[in-house]
Design brief:
By secondary structure, this protein is α+β, with helices and mostly antiparallel strands. The protein has helices at residues 11-21, 32-46, 52-65, 67-76, 81-87, 90-100, 235-239; strands at residues 23-26, 106-115, 141-146, 159-161, 172-175, 181-184, 195-197, 205-208, 214-215, 225-233. Strand 5 and strand 6 (181-184) form a beta hairpin.
C-alpha cells in the first residue's frame, strides 16, 4: 500500500495521483487534538468514559438496543465542531479545491460509520458513490478516517479498487431493511483491478473519488470498527442531488 506524505508531494502532484488511482492515502493529516475532541463529544453523547474501549462498547450497546437512536448518534458525530475542523484542514481542503476547481466547496453527509461482523445491514458491498449522486457532473470527494483506533484488514477497513474510477460499473440496487441501500457492483466486474486495503493509523485519512469503487472490509477482530466521513462537493452535489434511499435505520 502506497502512503503519501503531503509535505513531500505538492498539491498538483497529489491531484494527479488522485485522478489516476481514484484515491489518496494521506499520512499524518489530522491533528491528535481534534481526534481527542471528537472522542470527547462521543463520550458526552453516550454518557460513557472518554476511551476508545468505552465508546465502542457504548456504541455496540446502543446499536443492539435502539437502531434509531444509534442512527441519530452517527449523524450527530458528523455535526460536531471537531469534525468540521478536520474537514476544513488547510492541507486537505487545498487538495479538494484543486480537484473541484473552485473555492466554493460544500460539505455534505458527515457521519460516523460502524462495522461489526454480525451487523450486516451496515456493511457496504462494492459500489461507487456516483450511484448516490446521479446529478453530479464534477466530483464528490469523501474524507474517511479512523477516530478511535487504527484500521486494518483484521478489523474490516475499507477496500478500494485502484484505478476503477475510470469506468462507470454496472450496479444493482438492493434496499436493506433498517439499513443502507446497496448499489452493488459484482466482484467479476472489478476482477482486473488491484484491491487496496486502507490500513491506516489515527491521524491518517483517505480521500477518494465519487467514481472510485470500494467496499466495507471483513471485520474478524471481534471488536466493532468505527470511522468518520465527510464529503466535499459543489452546489449541485449539495443542493440538487435527486438520490432518495429506500430504507432508513
Amino acid at each position: 500500500m502506497e502512503i503519501l506524505n503531503t509535505q513531500i508531494l505538492n498539491t498538483k502532484e497529489l491531484i494527479k495521483k488522485f485522478r489516476e488511482d481514484g484515491f489518496l492515502i494521506l499520512k499524518n493529516s489530522i491533528n491528535q487534538e481534534d481526534i481527542n475532541l471528537t472522542q470527547a463529544y462521543a463520550a458526552d453523547f453516550l454518557e460513557c468514559q472518554q476511551s476508545s474501549e468505552s465508546i465502542i462498547q457504548s456504541m455496540e450497546k446502543l446499536e443492539s438496543e435502539n437502531r434509531k437512536s444509534f442512527y441519530e448518534f452517527c449523524k450527530r458525530m458528523g455535526q460536531i465542531n471537531s469534525t468540521f475542523k478536520i474537514a476544513c484542514n488547510e492541507n486537505i481542503l487545498g487538495i479538494v479545491e484543486g480537484i473541484l476547481k473552485t473555492k466554493t466547496v460544500h460539505l455534505v453527509d458527515s457521519a460516523a460509520f460502524y462495522n461489526k461482523l454480525s451487523v450486516k445491514r451496515l456493511q457496504y458491498d462494492w459500489h461507487q458513490e456516483n450511484a448516490y449522486f446521479p446529478n453530479v457532473e464534477n466530483e464528490v470527494m469523501t474524507l474517511w478516517y479512523p477516530w478511535l483506533h487504527a484500521v486494518n484488514e483484521k478489523n474490516g477497513t475499507m477496500v478500494m479498487a485502484k484505478r476503477g474510477n475510470h469506468l462507470t460499473h454496472n450496479r444493482e440496487r438492493i434496499p436493506v431493511k433498517d439499513g443502507l441501500t446497496q448499489m452493488k457492483i459484482t466482484e467479476e466486474d472489478l476482477a482486473d483491478f488491484e484491491k487496496v486495503s486502507c490500513n491506516i493509523e489515527l491521524g491518517d485519512a483517505i480521500l477518494f473519488s465519487v467514481h472510485s469503487p470500494h467496499r466495507t472490509g471483513h471485520n474478524s477482530s471481534g471488536v466493532p470498527r468505527s470511522t468518520i466521513i465527510t464529503r466535499y462537493t459543489d452546489k449541485i452535489g449539495k443542493f440538487h442531488n435527486t438520490w432518495e434511499p429506500v430504507s432508513y435505520y
